[in-house]
Amino acid sequence: MLTSSLPSLLLLLSLSSNFLNVALSDDGGGLFCSAPSVFETETAASSSSKPLYWKVTNPTLSPSHLQDLPGFTRSVYKGDHALITPESHVFSPLPGWTNTLGAYLITPAMGSHFVMYLAKMQENSKSGLPPNDVERFLFVVQGSATLTNASGAHHQLMVDSYAYLAPNSKHSLECDASATLVVFERRYSPLENHFTKQIVGSTDQQPLLETPGEVFELRKLLPPSLPYDFNIHVSLSLLPSLRSSYFSRLKF
Q1: Which of 80, 82, 96, 202 might form a disulfide with 161, Cβ 3.0–4.6 angstroms?
Q2: Is residue 95 included in any domain, yes or no?
Q3: For residue 165, what are the β-bridge partners?
């Protein structure tokens, strides 16, 4: 799906209250704003009463008049990009995790240099560790889970919370009920005398960045410093019709 010879890597993932789109680019390409589906029939009032990322865990986002068509999908698979929609997600037991189902959205087997997957943690579930020298980023879209690091410090991750785990750092994520997370893992690109550290936060705690002339508010989740070899931007639309829409971009 994504190959290193391509000048730009783009991955769009529908994951939001109206649409949460994730775009990955190795050259700092433009941002992609999501727009409401032309098949959307819900009113703004009914949408606002639902959980923030309810469409991530909804079984299908297909238009109602197309849901009975076998094999119907809005997903698009091309040589330099992919649009992976929820009806295309295939969940199975996640290797190394306990009582957790995962749906891989992008893997090195498809030509990329990172892994992206959804993790559905169930009752009494626990995460596994990534491979050696691999950094991990977690973003909670449903439920809550407890992150524990090697020193024994605990952090309760709620919806819209996230955590960055440095490569080779011992940690575990446990869930007593249920939680759904977006997980990114990538082999870290080290710099001499520069080291990353664990970061735990939530979107609303991050300062707004200036976006002159744009119709969205932009927040950066990771420090823009040399040790961190990627970053994540999350935006909230300022337009009333898109008030609950989020999108994010990862830059490597």
Answers
A1: 202
A2: yes
A3: 136
Cα 89-94-97 angle, rounded to 5 deg: 145
Question: What value, to the nearest 5°, has the Cα angle with vertex 13 and ends 8 and 19?
Answer: 125
Look up the domain containing 119 and give its range: 10-251
pLDDT (0 to 100) of residue 196: 94
pLDDT at 66: 59
Within-domain flag for 5: no
Instruction: Give Cα separations from 122 to 90, 101, 152, 250 (angstroms).
Output: 16, 8, 23, 27
Residue 1 lies in a domain: no
**Model confidence over 220-252: pLDDT tens digits?**
899 989 999 988 888 776 655 544 444 444 555
What are the distances in angstroms from CA 34 to CA 7, 44, 119, 182, 207? 23, 16, 23, 18, 22
Q: What pLDDT shows up at residue 50?
A: 75
| 150 belongs to a structural domain | yes
CATH assignment of the domain containing 109: 2.60.120.10
